[in-house]
Amino acid sequence: MAEPYVLVVEDDPHVLTLVATRLEDAGYRVTTAIDAWQEVVQTQGLKVGLIISDIQMPGVGTGVDALKCLRALPNVSPLLPVIFITGMNLEEARRLIPPDAKTRLVGKPIDFNELRIAIKELTGLDRPL
Hints:
Elements: E1 5-9, H1 13-25, E2 30-33, H2 36-45, E3 48-54, H3 63-72, E4 82-86, H4 90-96, E5 103-107, H5 112-123
Parallel strand pairs: 1-2, 1-3, 3-4, 4-5
Helix pairs in contact: 2-3
């Protein structure tokens, strides 16, 4: 049986490629999206085990909007873990994210050790990034 995907959602192509490549090199099965709408669509259509999403993106909605939408869908587990990555002030970003035991926040530029720890806390998987 195939391992679930890690869905990386990021509108900056450089950050998207960097995160996706680091995860793939660590052995994760990765798919990507560039906005919140694609995040919702892919999560419903694929076996996604973790989302790593930017908060602020152009287009329809933010990463937080996508999380709220996904949490309301009956065919998506309310326990699906989400790690937000953001260049925003982290205190400001924390105020935007609803309280949820299955979410974490990592600032940009991304500290890949911090991302690794967040992945381990949420999924139990621990692979060097």
